[in-house]
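Q: For a teaching handout, I want to show students what a protein-ligand complex looks like in token form. Below are the inputs, and the small molecule is succinic acid. Please produce the holo structure.
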Amino acid sequence: MALRLTDSDLKQFDEEGWLFFPGVFSGDEVALLNEEAHKIFASDREEVFREKDGKTARTAFAAQNFNEAYRRLGRHPRLLGPVMQLLDGPVYMHQFKINAKAAFNGDVWQWHQDYGTWKRDDDMPEPRAMNIALFLDDVTEFNGALMFIPRSHKKGTLKAGHDLKTTSYPLWTIDEDTITQLVADGGIVSPKGKAGGVIMFHSNLVHGSPSNMSPFDRTIVYLSLCHVDNHIRRFQRAEWIAHRDFTPLEPLADHCLAELVEARRAAAE
Ligand code: SIN
Ligand code: MN
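A: Here is the structure, written as tokens, with succinic acid included.
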């Protein structure tokens, strides 16, 4: 299924700051990516960040650079297409992460804006970059769904503090008074849906997610794509967290992942 944003999608994105599309990837495509994600979480690569317990995978960075299924996902036309449409031009991969939010042990992501981090840590000139994310598990009210504050992307880059304590991962987070005001204006939405759904959101949209105390994993893979003219200027974070290859990404064919599913199946027979 190709993903071309309609005028009403563009209007909703502009006004609300986010979009959700169910059923963009098939069950087979998702199953392959989910299986590969768990192999990556079980590996001892430095790109796999653990929760505070030191064991549970929290997020795995840069899998598009070392795993064939994720290499293809990182160039998938169903993900690159709508972002190139919204950012109006060629994009490169600023960051790529598979967030585990594991059953029982997946910890919170505090309230934040992604561009707040990209500006402060990486000196990205403008918020001409955004996330598009694929659900690899069903996302429900139980397993730590994302929460968005609609319309908060209209407020620019908000003041934030560098939180090094709450979780194992440092994040520029927004204080409670600011969140209270933003929610009074915009409310909170929490897009949920089956594995295979895709969410996209503005890089200044304030968001977070609670911990996962359910017995269900909530794996989501995020492509953070940036217009090539807007590449980062500061290289203080590890290359595998904030990438430095600003080459425009060329989308692969729509069947690039389905083809890999078929090839693996044929090899197993
Ligand atoms: C993020 O905001 O970067 C991650 C949030 C989540 O996966 O819950
Ligand atoms: Mn974020």
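A: Two things your students might notice: The chain has one domain: 7-268. The two ends are 28 Å apart (CA to CA).
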